[in-house]
Design goal:
The chain is elongated and about 65 Å long. The longest helix has 33 residues, at 76-108. The protein has helices at 7-23, 29-32, 38-69, 76-108, 112-142. It has one domain. The mean pLDDT is 94. Helix 1 packs antiparallel against helix 3 (38-69), helix 3 (38-69) packs antiparallel against helix 4 and helix 4 (76-108) runs antiparallel to helix 5. It is mainly alpha-helical and 144 residues long.
Length: 144
């Protein structure tokens, strides 16, 4: 007899898929986005609005359901990743989107020192954000 798939397990899968969709690209951005390419910066803004924000919201909602269903709210492996998710979603809207827009504008006018400085700053924050994703995954999987 094949065991039934529980709704909880479906929501776990949706949660993981949403995290991958929202934040997986952040690991590739520093490697694949050409410096000085206005179209690439505009694409990052579109991805943030059309993929990261909705998928991050779905990950949040699925996580709330999962923690509530099993009463896991007191667990550090729930609280820490939740805090990280809120931070990542906040920096997406308040940091990455405005700066990618500015990078696109600067790239269109030839870049220059302001572009280089901002691009380096955004790259550093991207790497920190990607590291936060890894920390959240560690907490969710290892449950320390």
């Amino acid at each position: 007899m094949v065991p039934a798939v529980l709704f909880y397990d479906v929501v776990v899968s949706v949660h993981v898929m949403a995290v991958v969709a929202a934040f997986g690209g952040w690991f590739a951005y520093p490697l694949v986005v050409p410096r000085g390419d206005a179209a690439a910066h505009r694409a990052q803004v579109r991805l943030a609005r059309m993929v990261v924000t909705p998928a991050g919201t779905l990950a949040f909602l699925a996580g709330v359901y999962l923690a509530s269903d099993r009463d896991y709210w007191d667990e550090s492996w729930v609280g820490i990743p939740l805090l990280i998710l809120v931070v990542l979603m906040g920096i997406t809207g308040a940091y990455f989107i405005p700066r990618q827009k500015r990078l696109a504008e600067l790239a269109e006018t030839g870049g220059g020192p302001e572009y280089s400085k901002l691009a380096d700053q955004v790259r550093t924050v991207s790497l920190v954000a990607a590291a936060l994703v890894l920390v959240a995954i560690f907490f969710m999987v290892a449950k320390p």
